[in-house]
Amino acid sequence: MLGVVHMPLLLISYFIIGLVVGSFLNVCIYRIPEGRSIISPPSSCGTCGHVLGPLDMIPVLSYIFLGGKCRYCGTAYSPRYALVELLTGCLFVLCGLQYLPGIALFLVFAFVASLVVITFVDFDHQIILDQVLIFMLVCGIGYVAIYSKDYWGALYGMLISGGLMLLIYFVSRGGMGEGDVKLSFVLGVWLGWKAVLVCLLLAFVMGGVIGTLLLATGIKGRKDPIPFGPYLCLGAYIALLYSPYIIFYYWHFFI
User: Fold this and answer.
1) DSSP 3-state of 40
2) At 44, is the secondary structure helix, strand, or coil?
3) Is pLDDT of 16 > 70?
4) What pLDDT does 2 receive?
5) Cα(first)–Cα(last) distance of the chain, in Å?
6) What distance in Å separates the CA atoms of residue 29 and residue 121, rounded to the nearest whole number?
7) Cis preceding-peptide flag for 41 (omega within 30 of 0)
8) Alpha helices in the chain (DSSP H)
9) 44: which strand partners?
10) Distance in angstroms (rounded) separating the CA atoms of residues 251 and 249
11) Would you give the distance in Å from CA 205 to the centre of its chain?
12) Most exposed of 9, 61, 207, 223 (fewest Cβ within 10 Å)?
């Protein structure tokens, strides 16, 4: 069992790892939909083209110290770059509170990183990238084989969540995206049948509430696409970490 003294140090290290991973995820979010390599060329300013140095790419701190602007041409950067880094760091910390250090936690970090990429790419382009889904599926198979050992739960989860979303896809005649269906199959592997039901319930509730608010406030029109992938990702994250508690309290207070 981890000592009380070591736990804060571990959480700080998870936060820092998350910041660094978040910086890399920004590259993935920007480049993969354009079919560009995430390795080369090096990161550069999108306006002046100047290659960014190490001091320009310190997660969050560079954005703060440079006032959110390019050091070389003064062009303002979107605050979302820092947001993705901070978000990933915080998500990693919450995972660290639920998992002991080891391969399982490493795979969970990979899962969370994939959810972040899917969320922001879907917001920007209304697509869910097959490359990310394949990576997530491979990690999910490893997670089941190494950690959960619930092979039947993973199979049932995949069939239930993917099958349900596939049915909605056909009934809605394309109202649900193909990427959402494929994402649901992968989430079923990760979560198992119980947790994936929690994930889907949360996703539909959050999507319905937020979608209604967007329409009511005029931010979105009736014909404007509203991506569902981000709600699936948020539901999956909550279900992965907290579904046993959600199921327990729901069962005892509402059943």
Assistant:
1) coil
2) strand
3) yes
4) 52
5) 35
6) 6
7) yes
8) 6-31, 61-65, 80-98, 103-125, 130-143, 151-171, 178-216, 229-254
9) 51
10) 5
11) 18
12) 223
